[in-house]
Amino acid sequence: MSDGGRGTAVDLRLDRAHPARIYDFLLGGRTHFAADREAARRVLSAFPPAAAAARINRAFTHRAARHLAREGMGQFLDIGTGIPTSPNLHETVQAVRPDARVVYTDNDPVVLAHAAALLHGRPEGRTAYVQADVTDPAAVLGAPGLRETLDLGRPVALVLVALLHFVPDDGCDRAHAAVEELKAAVPSGSTLTATHATREFAPAAMARVAEVYQRAGTPFQLRTEAAFRRFFDGWELLEPGVTLTHRWRPDRPGDALRATSAEAACYAATARKP
Ligand SMILES: C[S@@+](CC[C@H](N)C(=O)[O-])C[C@H]1O[C@@H](n2cnc3c(N)ncnc32)[C@H](O)[C@@H]1O
C-alpha cells in the first residue's frame, strides 16, 4: 500500500473529533470514538437531517460514478475518500467496468489505518491508497501509488465529494486553487464530480453545524451556489447541471421527492473537460 511517501506512522488522535469518523457515525458505521460521537450528536442536534443528508450524499456519489463508468470512464481519483463504507467507489465502478482503476486519497490517518479495505478490487482492475492533502495537488498527483495506478495521459474522473467544505478560504481561496491545479493535470474527456454543503436552504441549522465542526477543531466553510459553480469553470456540466445531491439523476423519478433541499443541504454536479 502506498502512503504517498510520507511514512506510515499513524497518530489517530482519538481525543479529538475527525470529520471522517463523524461522517462514519452519521452513516451508521463502527469506526468512531467518544469525541467523534459527541461531535456527531451535536451536528444532529443542530441539523436533525444530517444522517439522511450523509446517506443522500453517498448515494449521489454512486449514481454519478456508475454513470461515468457506463459512459466508458475507466480511471477514478477519489480525494477525501472517508472511512471505507461498502459499497466503496471501486465496487460500484468495477461492477460496470471490472478493469476500472481507482486511487483513493485522504489526509486523515484514520482513513489510512483502514485503507486495506479499499484495496480488494477486481483482479482485472486496480486500486491504490495515497495519504495526501487536497491542498497539495502536487503531492497527490506525484505519489508513486497514483503514478503506478493511473495514466494521467488518459481521462480521469476526479471525485471530490463532501470534501471541499473542509477547505477554508483563509483569504487565499485554497479550495478553488487546488481544484484548478487538479483540473489542469488531467486531459480532455476527464470529469470532475463534487458535492458541497451549503447554508442556502437551512441557514440557521447549517451555520450551527459549521460552528460544531469549528469548535471540534475542523474548519468548515459553507459556500454559495455561485462559489460551488466556480469549481467547474471552463468545463461542461453534465445534465442536470448544478443541483442538490438528491436531485442529480435519481434512479427512479420519485426518489428526488423523498428529501427536501433543506435536508440534502449539499450542492452536486459533474462536469467534463472539453
Ligand atoms: C464527509 S467525508 C466524505 C467521504 C466520502 N467522500 C463520501 O462522500 O462518502 C470527508 C473526508 O474528507 C477528508 N478530508 C478533509 N479535509 C481534507 C483535505 N484537506 N485533504 C484530503 N482529505 C480531506 C476527511 O478526512 C474525510 O475523510
Q: What's the layout of helices and strands?
A:
Blueprint: H1 19-26, H2 34-46, H3 50-70, E1 75-79, H4 89-96, E2 101-106, H5 109-114, E3 126-131, H6 137-142, H7 144-147, E4 157-160, H8 174-184, E5 191-197, H9 203-215, H10 225-230, E6 236-237, E7 243-244, H11 261-264, E8 266-272
Parallel strand pairs: 1-2, 1-4, 2-3, 4-5
Antiparallel strand pairs: 5-8, 6-8, 7-8
Helix pairs in contact: 1-2, 2-9, 3-4
The protein binds S-adenosylmethionine.
S-adenosylmethionine (SAM) binds at residues 19-20, 23, 57-58, 61, 79-82, 106-108, 111, 133-135, 161-163, 166-167.
Organism: Streptomyces albireticuli
InterPro entries: SAM-dependent_MTases_sf, SAM_dep_MeTrfase_SAV2177_type
Protein name: Methyltransferase
Describe this structure in words.
Helix 5 links the parallel strand 2 (101-106) and strand 3 (126-131). The chain is an alpha/beta fold. Helices cover 36% and strands 14% of the residues. Strands 1, 2, 3, 4, 5, 6, 7 and 8 form an eight-stranded mixed beta sheet that branches. The protein has helices at 19-26, 34-46, 50-70, 89-96, 109-114, 137-142, 144-147, 174-184, 203-215, 225-230, 261-264; strands at 75-79, 101-106, 126-131, 157-160, 191-197, 236-237, 243-244, 266-272. Mean pLDDT is 93; it is low at 1-7. The chain binds S-adenosylmethionine (SAM). Residues 19-20, 23, 57-58, 61, 79-82, 106-108, 111, 133-135, 161-163, 166-167 line the site of S-adenosylmethionine. Residues 19-20, 23, 57-58, 61, 79-82, 106-108, 111, 133-135, 161-163, 166-167 line the site of S-adenosylmethionine (SAM).
